[in-house]
Write a structure and sequence with these properties.
The protein contains 9 helices and no strands. The chain is mainly alpha-helical.
Length: 194
């Protein structure tokens, strides 16, 4: 048993004639940290408003609408950017969303929405897809800033307080009532979506 431990220790210290195992592990660790940091930096760069509106499809369409909403300009100066509503905060869900977004990039490359007319023709389909995603995750991104627990219904208008109470009782989620909160509602919506 002692000789096996000694062999293992020797292999860890001297896995090759030139480099020790500790040296190789240290270099491997530092390389991993460098690449992981670079990956996360690049990932976060794709969550900026500037990146999101760098495509004219977004800059000329939904961004112009968003600039007219309370999520862009309000009395407190708090601004929600694209990623606040469309990209989850936690790493696992963020990665899933980034993979899904690659399909959207593919659509851009193929020219599916490269003109205002094509964008409007696809707008309802795109909105329904996003609404379904938000419904499925219980409006997780909305809840990063808004929660029923954090609401002071005494400071809300009577109708808003009443509707939030009904939503809580019926286990509804934000997107059930707040479609079109940051973008115009698409033409041709189903009546239940209105």
């Amino acid at each position: 048993m002692a000789s096996r431990i000694k062999q293992l220790w020797t292999a860890l210290r001297l896995p090759s004639a030139k480099h020790s195992m500790f040296g190789l592990l240290t270099v491997g660790f530092l390389t991993g940290v460098f690449f992981w940091g670079g990956f996360n930096t690049a990932l976060e760069a794709t969550n900026t408003m500037e990146f999101c509106i760098s495509c004219h499809e977004m800059r000329d369409n939904v961004y112009q609408e968003y600039k007219k909403t309370i999520h862009y300009t309000n009395r407190t100066g708090v601004r929600a950017v694209c990623s606040d509503c469309h990209v989850p905060k936690d790493w696992t869900h963020k990665m899933v969303r980034k993979v899904q977004a690659s399909a959207e990039v593919w659509g851009k490359l193929m020219g599916t929405i490269d003109t205002r007319e094509k964008f409007e023709a696809n707008r309802l389909r795109l909105a329904e897809h996003e609404w379904a995603r938000m419904k499925a995750n219980d409006s997780r991104e909305c809840r990063n800033c808004h929660s029923f627990d954090g609401m002071d219904t005494e400071k809300q208008k009577v109708r808003g307080a009443k509707m939030h109470k009904i939503a809580q009782d019926d286990k509804q989620t934000c997107i059930d009532c707040h479609k079109g909160i940051a973008h115009q509602k698409p033409k041709g919506m189903k009546e239940e979506d209105e």
